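SUBJECT: A protein chain and its fold
Encoding: whole-number codes for local backbone shapes
RECORD BEGINS BELOW THIS LINE
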Amino acid sequence: PFALTTTLVEYRNGKQADSNTLTVYSKADSDSGQFRSLIRFLAPARDANKLMLKSGNDLWFYDPSSKASIRLSPQQRLLGQASNGDVVTVNLAKDYKAELAAEEDTQDGDRKVHRAYKLVLAASTPDVTYHRIEMWINVASNRPIKARFYSESGRHLKTAYYRRFQSELGVERPTETVIIDGLNPNWVTVMRFSDYAWRDVPETWLQRDYLPRFKPE
């Protein structure tokens, strides 16, 4: 189990439009290998202490002001180009079947060219955030370079570039993801990941019934 801070900043036509800061607590399910996550909203003030819980394929949102928990879709937009499913911890190997489609040159977020494996990921369950993903993996480093995300109808929803790799919790991870809208490239959302830490995530935190009683430590 571990925790991290996720900051999302939305830009429209080069100007900052909105932002969110979240704490994510995640724990892998020993049976399924899927991650269960509790997300606490830190900022802006209007959203502080709202919660989102992913358990199995269920996603719940809890607002302490209304004391109501409602079911969400992982495809619903959270902020800018980032959907709810983008901020919970996922295990792509469990949710998708991957095929090697090609080995080709591709550009990263800084327009540098790399030799990459192009993988096509097809959803193996209906409740995932994206029906199909194309992902480019750097041949030399095995790091993800970018991914394109598609809806069930085949519409290109967004492209994500993975940047600023650092060793976090013993693994090289991107600490920044830049998401570009599939229709309007001037709509951009930047996700930054920081404050990674191993920590205990009590089982009670991952129960929907416990959301009204959750108290951050």
